């Protein structure tokens, strides 16, 4: 018999690195979820852009169960069939020739930054080690990636930080150009800053970074951990922009909820990382690879990707209608099904209030900093689920407005 647990046990047993919601989810299907008290929620959070096909997708379940009956894990001293099939899918679908598998977006970015440093060292004997990143970015929680992230709140307590990382202003090409030089080994950028406020890059900014990297023989790394695997309506956001990076990192939606990450790159760069230069015990695990292979099969279709743009309109139209009634947002921005409702001056700094009020109303949303309510639902969410979820979110917004007027 399973031991009874509650939200209170988190505060008693877990390290206080998170402040989770007051309810405990116990089961889910599609874009609906139920807690311990059987309260239903519409899921507009998607596990932070992870559950790209919703919860408990039957074909993902089947892929996992089938693989679990055959081979779970061998370690990186051996390869396996699911990971080779997944690698071929990613190579066939992208600019890349080679793939390195790991377990998370942070690990994928760590691998990309290590590749960049080794690339620079091999070319210059050590002088070419500079990394240019951008303020308000988010690349993970390892010491290297949190340093690249450019958000001091996440890194200041862990100094001394890895050196030779500088930060420009996102979407400001002149700011980047002032930092990129012959000693720069890489520029790392999110095509859409997710945690930084759901802020899409301009096409001119990304093309400018491509040109600057070419000029200074630096690698252009696209962090597509949040924007990848169909989230923008293209398989990867670089396809939407028409700007091809040297290295791409992907995770989150790649496993549809099963932990997996990957770094993709060209043949010549992959050759830099010879045997023993990098590794991971669980990376390329056959269970994760089998699930991710099915995710790729289901998402990388014209029907699924075209459906993202249709759902984008449902959300934007619905949020704009709420805003007409409640006057809360200064802007609705984002691409595909990664959207941010930017709070206006009156409500600035109160995104968490919207997150909590939405949960009370039976809909799960995210925040992206203190000023942006973020939406990252499943790519296959139904029109009825969107309608009901937006109705619940509207009630939450109306409640906040009414409370404020009292």
TrEMBL record:
Superkingdom classification of source: Bacteria
CC cofactor note: Binds 1 pyridoxal phosphate per subunit.
The biological pathway it contributes to is: Amino-acid biosynthesis; L-arginine biosynthesis; N(2)-acetyl-L-ornithine from L-glutamate: step 4/4; Amino-acid biosynthesis; L-lysine biosynthesis via DAP pathway; LL-2,6-diaminopimelate from (S)-tetrahydrodipicolinate (succinylase route): step 2/3
GO biological process terms held by the UniProt record: L-arginine biosynthetic process; L-arginine catabolic process; lysine biosynthetic process via diaminopimelate
MF GO annotations = identical protein binding; N2-acetyl-L-ornithine:2-oxoglutarate 5-aminotransferase activity; pyridoxal phosphate binding; succinyldiaminopimelate transaminase activity
Q: Which reaction does this enzyme catalyse, per its entry?
A: N(2)-acetyl-L-ornithine + 2-oxoglutarate = N-acetyl-L-glutamate 5-semialdehyde + L-glutamate; N-succinyl-(2S,6S)-2,6-diaminopimelate + 2-oxoglutarate = (S)-2-succinylamino-6-oxoheptanedioate + L-glutamate
Annotated localization: Cytoplasm
A Pfam short name: Aminotran_3
EC number in record: 2.6.1.11, 2.6.1.17
The residues that hold pyridoxal 5'-phosphate are: 105-106, 138, 223-226, 281
Residues modified as N6-(pyridoxal phosphate)lysine are 252
Sites binding N(2)-acetyl-L-ornithine sit at 141, 280
> Which coarse location class describes where this protein primarily resides?
cytoplasm
The alphabetized UniProt keywords are: Amino-acid biosynthesis, Aminotransferase, Arginine biosynthesis, Cytoplasm, Lysine biosynthesis, Pyridoxal phosphate, Transferase
**Role:** Involved in both the arginine and lysine biosynthetic pathways.
**HAMAP family registered for this protein in UniProt:** ArgD_aminotrans_3 (MF_01107)
Subunit-level organization: Homodimer.
Known PANTHER family for this protein? AMINOTRANSFERASE CLASS III, SUCCINYLORNITHINE TRANSAMINASE
* NCBIfam families attached to this UniProt entry: arg_catab_astC (TIGR03246), argD (TIGR00707), PRK01278.1 (NF002325), PRK05093.1 (NF003468), PRK12381.1 (NF009047)
Report the sequence similarity comment from the record: Belongs to the class-III pyridoxal-phosphate-dependent aminotransferase family. ArgD subfamily.
Q: What is this protein called?
A: Acetylornithine/succinyldiaminopimelate aminotransferase
């Amino acid at each position: 018999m399973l031991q009874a647990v509650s939200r209170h046990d988190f505060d008693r047993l877990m390290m206080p690195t998170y402040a989770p919601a007051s309810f405990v989810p116990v089961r889910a299907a599609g874009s609906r979820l139920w807690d311990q008290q059987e309260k239903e929620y519409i899921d507009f959070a998607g596990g932070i852009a992870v559950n790209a096909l919703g919860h408990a997708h039957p074909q993902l379940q089947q892929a996992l169960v089938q693989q679990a009956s055959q081979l779970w894990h061998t370690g990186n001293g051996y390869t396996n069939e699911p990971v080779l099939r997944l690698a071929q899918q990613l190579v066939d679908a992208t600019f890349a020739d080679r793939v390195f598998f790991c377990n998370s977006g942070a690990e994928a970015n760590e691998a990309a930054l290590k590749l960049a440093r080794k690339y620079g060292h091999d070319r210059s004997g050590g002088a070419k080690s500079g990394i240019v990143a951008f303020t308000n970015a988010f690349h993970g929680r390892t010491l290297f990636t949190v340093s690249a992230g450019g958000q001091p709140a996440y890194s200041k307590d862990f100094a001394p930080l890895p050196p030779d990382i500088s930060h420009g202003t996102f979407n400001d090409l002149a700011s980047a150009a002032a930092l990129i030089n012959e000693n720069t080994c890489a520029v790392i950028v999110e095509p859409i800053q997710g945690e930084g406020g759901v802020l899409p890059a301009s096409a001119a900014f990304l093309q400018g970074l491509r040109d600057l990297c070419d000029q200074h023989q630096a690698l252009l790394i696209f962090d597509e951990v949040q924007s990848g695997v169909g989230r923008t309506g293209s398989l990867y956001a670089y396809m939407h922009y028409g700007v091809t990076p040297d290295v791409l990192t992907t995770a989150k939606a790649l496993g549809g909820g099963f932990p997996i990450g990957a770094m993709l790159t060209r043949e010549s760069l992959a050759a830099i990382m010879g045997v023993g230069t990098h590794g991971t015990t669980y990376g390329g695990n056959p269970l994760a690879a089998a699930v991710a292979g099915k995710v790729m099969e289901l998402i990388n279709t014209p029907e699924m990707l075209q459906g993202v743009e249709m759902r984008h309109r449902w959300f934007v139209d619905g949020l704009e209608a709420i805003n007409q009634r409640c006057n809360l947002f200064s802007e609705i921005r984002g691409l595909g099904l990664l959207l941010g409702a930017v709070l206006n001056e009156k409500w600035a700094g109160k995104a968490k209030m919207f997150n909590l009020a939405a949960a009370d109303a039976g809909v799960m949303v995210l925040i992206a900093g203190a000023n942006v309510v973020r939406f990252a639902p499943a790519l296959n969410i139904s029109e009825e689920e969107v309608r009901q979820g937006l109705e619940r979110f509207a009630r939450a917004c109306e409640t906040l407005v009414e409370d404020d007027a009292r």
